Amino acid sequence: MKMDYYISQLLYRYQCVTVPGFGAFLTEIQSAQLHENSHSFYPPKKLVSFNAHVKNNDGLLANHIAQSEKMSYEVAVAVIESQVATWKNKLHDFGAIALKNVGEIAVNAEQNLVFTPYDQVNYLTSSFGLTSYVSPSVKREAVPQEVEIVSEKAPIQFIPEKRSSAPFIKYAAIFILGAGLLGTGGYFGNEYYQNKIQQETLAVQTKVQKQVEQKIQEATFFISNPLPSVTLTVSEGKMPYHVVAGAFRSENNAIRAYNALIRLGYPARRVEQNKNGLYPVVYGSYSSYTEAQKQMDSIQKKHNKEAWLLIQEL
């Protein structure tokens, strides 16, 4: 049996494929890429990584093998255990194993597992048929700029501004009229002159004020039909990452485990019975993989080293 073949099949459909007792293969979607130096375009893809801390059996791989090979679930679990033992022996003897279409796992100097994924297969189904593309570089020709030389002897024509002489003439006439009246009429002539000046000044001020008010009215506008108010509704985010304390055959055992976690202060949850007849109990649920991984590491150090990560929308 080729275990890597079944792992490769499941990576197309699931974000996490766990090999019980060995580790889990995780996928993350990467958007399309452009390498400017090589003028290469790459389609969106799934990046595959490996986490050696997730070892508990979630039933996904065993159930898939049982259906594909027409065997019972228990036999499939035994087959997986045998394959995992073979992998560990190869890692001990040769320092590395190769999983077809998935990647290579090797042991480094610190005796940790290092995973190197293969790039030949894109597990993102929405990118099926898309391949990388290399575009030839675009050569742009520099267009010389033509500068027009203006002759220094070009004549410059000045157009005098036309100004109305009517106000000056009007006030000059008023001044002459007032002066004549002042000279011939004495006090009464001077009073008449002053009244005339005030009347003319008031008329000019009134005309200017009307022009200013008209400009203000033309520059003022009103919105008769304002836009309706917009109400934004933010939907609550999903939390598909769960740190699992255990999966129990007995519902009473699951209830006791749940109550114990609540007393310890964990935001525990009970999950409905799965298709394998088990009742999972989780320490808590989280919206991001990073936060869930951090919480799982803390729980494994402080409370339960067998805690594992479940990625599923419950």
Walk me through what this model shows.
The protein is elongated and about 125 Å long. α2 packs across α3 (73-94). A 4-stranded antiparallel β-sheet has the order 11-12-10-13. The two termini are 32 Å apart. The protein is built from 6 helices and 13 strands. With 314 residues, the chain is an alpha+beta fold.
Poorly predicted parts: 172-182, 184-188, 218-227, 229-235
Total helices: the number is 6
Rg from alpha-carbon coordinates:
44 Å
Instruction: Tell me the series of helices and strands, N- to C-terminal.
Output: HEEEEEHHEEEEHEHEEHE
Q: What about the largest sheet?
A: 4 strands, antiparallel
- How confident overall, as mean pLDDT? 77
Structural class: alpha+beta
Morphology: elongated
Tell me roughly what share of residues is in helical segments.
25-40%
Strand arrangement in the largest pleated sheet = 11-12-10-13
Query: How far apart, in Å, are the first and last alpha carbons?
Result: 32 Å
**Count of distinct strands:** 13
Work out the strand percent.
15-25%
List the helices and strands and how they pair.
Elements: H1 3-11, E1 16-19, E2 23-30, E3 33-35, E4 40-42, E5 45-51, H2 60-69, H3 73-94, E6 96-99, E7 103-107, E8 113-117, E9 133-134, H4 166-219, E10 241-248, H5 251-263, E11 269-270, E12 279-286, H6 289-302, E13 308-311
Antiparallel strand pairs: 1-2, 2-5, 3-4, 4-9, 6-7, 7-8, 10-12, 10-13, 11-12
